Amino acid sequence: MQSPADRQDRHEYPAHWEADVVLRDGGTARIRPITADDAGRLVSFYEQVSDESKYYRFFAPYPRLSAKDVHRFTHHDFVDRVGLAATVGGEFIATVRYDRIGADGLPASAPADEAEVAFLVQDAHQGRGVASALLEHIAAVARERGIRRFAAEVLPANTKMIKVFTDAGYTQKRSFEDGVVRLELDLEPTDRSLAVQRAREQRAEARSVRRLLAPGSVAVVGVGRAPGGVGRSVLGNLRAAGYAGPLHAVNSAFPDDLEEVDGVPAHRSVRDIEGHVDLAVVAVPAEHVPAVVAECGEHGVQGLVVLSAGYAESGPAGRERQRALVRQARAYGMRIIGPNAFGIINTAPDVRLNASLAPEPPRPGRIGLFAQSGAIGIALLSRLHRRGGGVTGVTGVSTFVSAGNRADVSGNDVLQYWYDDPETDVVLMYLESIGNPRKFTRLARRTAAAKPLVVVQGTGTAPQGHTVRATRLPHATVSALLRQAGVIRVDTITELVDAGLLLARQPLPAGPRVAILGNSESLGVLTYDRCLAEGLQPLRPLDLTTGATAVDFHRALSAALADDACDSVVVTAIPAIGEGSPGDAELAEALRSAAAAAPGKPVLVVHVELGGLARALSAAASTAPQAAEPAPGAEDGAHPLQDAGVRAGGGAADRPPGARTAWRNPPEGTRLIPAYPAAERAVRALSEAVRYAQWRRDAADPGKVPEYDDIDEKGAAGLIAGLLARGEGLTIPDAETCELLGRYGIPVRRALPAPTPDAAAEAARALGYPVALKATAPHLRHRADLGGVRLDLADEEQLRRAYAELTGLFGQPEGLRPVVQQMAPRGVDTVVRAVIDPAAGAVLSFGLAGAASQLLGDMAHRLVPVTDREAASLVRSIRTAPLLFGWRGSTPVDTPALEELLLRVSRLVDDHPEVVAVTLEPVVVAPHGVSVLGATVRLAPPPARDDHGPRTLPVY
Length: 956
Known about the structure:
By secondary structure, the chain is α/β, with parallel strands linked by helices. It contains 28 helices and 40 strands. The strands form six sheets. Strands 1-2-3-4-5-6-8-7 form an eight-stranded mixed sheet, with helices on both faces. A seven-stranded mixed sheet has the order 11-12-10-9-13-14-15, sandwiched between helices. It has a seven-stranded mixed sheet with strand order 17-16-19-18-20-21-22, sandwiched between helices. Strand 5 (114-121), helix 4 and strand 6 (149-154) form a beta-alpha-beta unit. Helix 6 packs across helix 12, helix 12 (411-419) runs parallel beside helix 13 and helix 17 packs parallel to helix 18. It is flat. The protein starts with 18 loop residues before the first strand and ends in a 17-residue tail after the last strand.
């Protein structure tokens, strides 16, 4: 009889266990199953492990592996015996394996649900978080194979491995006997294990982006010998920005005797560079990129910015070339921005990195900026630059990333970096596509709780170079889900910058009440009307008249800010002519000093064609350049008001010819007042700030997911498993639908088939009068407007008459599929849906039944799991919600019961990922209670991995 270790593999190679992961230091590794072909790699790996690490693994000196050991550690059945390896450059750096055991501790097969687990990490890679990543993945594999517990025996001196287990967050037991620490881990994910996993994910991904944005040294590969060209331009931009670290120019065509290019050391290959290189900017034709990546990987380069085109944006062949590029780079532990990228910028004074095609970097500041395509990146930087004394003139940019095809580093990664970046206060993102909306929503919610996140989202059609998961959700639904996560959704670049300018240095408003004052009655009224249109609560505008002086503005603004009846102030100003009219600098100082005295409320300025004021305000800003000519773009930009007494550095005449402006950040804590050339732009930005501030307040108490004692989760799981055994995916029959929903406390009113008038009468007697007679054929289902429903049938005579009417109108019963159902109490007809979207995850939707949801799209959505506060807001967020709360004297319905129904549906979908769609229609919400009159449920096998699974980099 063969032992389990001698049996041949019983399962196909599980390719879905392969994954790329980001390690603690920001590098990457590949995790994959160990196979019989890995014998040589295993032996080589073991030879590089120290004697101490071998002792910790085997509890005795173990200098080398025997042939039997190698066979055992490389032959697995992928069920009871599994081994995973972490690799870099194709070579093992760490291994983990489990062996299923029975109650007696001997090798076993299912249904035994415990396994012994053991790790071994090369000493050179210890401390990088490799073992923690492997534990996440081997635990996920074990759960997939029916294993619920891990057991591990560790020597007390092996504190690093003990910490790997104890820090994982799983429920565990610990004992000590015979000089060995025995650990038992329950592999069911817990809130703590998930929190630990996501915290590690954030730190690792943030570190990987930080290595790209703050490299200690940079090599530009593809620098031409003659001026011009992409590589030469990037090298020039790096030099001009004053990059603080070593620079290298690389081109395989350089002559052997060429030592420098523009004062930068020249090399024919990255391999020729003495010392380490942190970042390589690649600007060579696509066909030459693989050789460059290999050189960089072998030299230990940490990351790549690939400007080269010719990848997924060029068609199927380019897409395959792009996937090969990512595989190659990750094999060496490198991350990629691009390909087809515009570049990256970091304005920090100790970095000064402009590894982009932008000839001049934006001015330093506190805004993080992300775009995908180069064209959008150019448009954003150009818009910011044209505004002169605007966003970039004062608040400025901390870091800029143009990810191109974002084959590897995406907006999610950069968001992880900005989340705890102390140099970034506001995040602006232009997203043409979202590769992983579920993760983006999760990260956005966490980031928005700490700092504003403003997003322009594409319309749903991804550029050719962007591979994204297909979504069945409308674009408006995805936008709504992002807003629920705290994202400030805007539609244009102008709105993106307008909102960013306000949020960068103004406090968040405490509410929607807006004071309006200025020297133009008509402009004040226009601002008032726009406030109403945006859902704000404007106070009556205060007209200071065109003769208002700077003192008048100061006095009025001070009074408004001191008024407890307002939460923010909009100041409107038009040019004034005449003696006593305030000068531009005088007005700027008056507003600044008044605002400084009340720093808790935001102040905005609406100005009309005040070119002189724009220049004066730019001059007052300590970060704005002084120039004799008007501020570029002043006529259509947003401008900051800052301390008019603080003068900037010397003007253009004081700078040497050809010198670039040395932009400086304003003093920390300086109060900046944004000014806008149109009332609608200022009010729109303010309304977004008001909604975001309210979201921040609500997010502080998000509510809870209630526990219901009558939910039978295990019974539902057994029922689902039995139903799925019938097929891969199915809409389950009515009886099983009612049983499944019933296990979650969701009763469905019985509907009995009525293929004949006699059967209808018998069904009515069983249910009790009054009853309803309904046609359930697909073309008539939920279409009361077509006449396929007869209600309040009080006796058999009325029932038979209604049956004859239906068959007379629509044909034979076989085509109608009539049913008889007991009447529900009168109320408001609603619809509740839940769907597992492949991109966004589980989404719960609610609306009124009929035309309101079908024709007008009046549906509200929340991500599952839904809390009690979210359920309450879901009910109230549809436009037709007043019908539920006593509109025009009607009786209010039982919304608490409706909210409980929503929470129970959310629990069902969250507990059982096999439930991919639920529709309850109609749900009649009466003054007391709810009645579910119709229900359908669709099942499908659950995905092998989801957002609760182990950390892994996406593969597009």
